[in-house]
């Protein structure tokens, strides 16, 4: 594991940014039900259409922020993944990929991938 982590060190800032935007996404996702509850409790139950529209616009804004955070976090995560993969391949490292095959025996297939060879165990 330590051998793999050394390739990630130069991407620390991008990893922190990706995680930050995922946390922002989670917070915004958790805020939406509160807004919906406000619409029902303070708007629908009292028949206050102006309040419903105002909170509805706020919900739309929060949703758009959520989409933007998702796009940004995906962008940073993709930059890390592409750079990490490039670094691993350029140093001739071997990746181990575990693929579970659904069969009556529930076997696990281990595929060793390198730049020049594919070996199935």
Automatic annotation (TrEMBL):
Q: Which residues form the signal peptide?
A: none
Q: Identify the main location.
A: membrane
* Key words of the record: Membrane, Transmembrane, Transmembrane helix
Check the record and name the PROSITE patterns matching this protein.
Answer: ABC_TM1F (PS50929)
Q: Which InterPro entries match?
A: ABC1_TM_dom, ABC1_TM_sf
GO cellular component annotations of the record = plasma membrane
Superkingdom is Bacteria
Q: Name one GO molecular function term.
A: ABC-type transporter activity
As for subcellular location, the record says:
Cell membrane
Its membrane topology: Multi-pass membrane protein
Outline the extent of the ABC transmembrane type-1 domain: 16-91
Q: Does the keyword Lyase apply?
A: no
Spell out where the chain crosses the membrane.
Answer: 12-32, 52-78
Q: What is this protein called?
A: ABC transmembrane type-1 domain-containing protein
- Recorded source organism is Petrotoga halophila DSM 16923
């Amino acid at each position: 594991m330590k051998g793999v982590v050394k390739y990630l060190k130069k991407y620390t800032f991008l990893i922190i940014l990706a995680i930050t935007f995922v946390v922002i996404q989670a917070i915004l996702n958790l805020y939406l039900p509160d807004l919906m509850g406000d619409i029902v409790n303070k708007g629908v139950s009292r028949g206050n259409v102006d309040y419903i529209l105002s909170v509805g616009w706020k919900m739309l804004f929060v949703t758009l922020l959520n989409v933007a955070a998702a796009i940004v976090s995906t962008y940073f995560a993709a930059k890390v993944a592409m750079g990490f993969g490039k670094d691993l391949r350029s140093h001739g490292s071997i990746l181990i990929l575990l693929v579970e095959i659904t069969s009556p025996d529930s076997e696990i297939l281990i595929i060793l991938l390198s730049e020049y060879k594919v070996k199935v165990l």
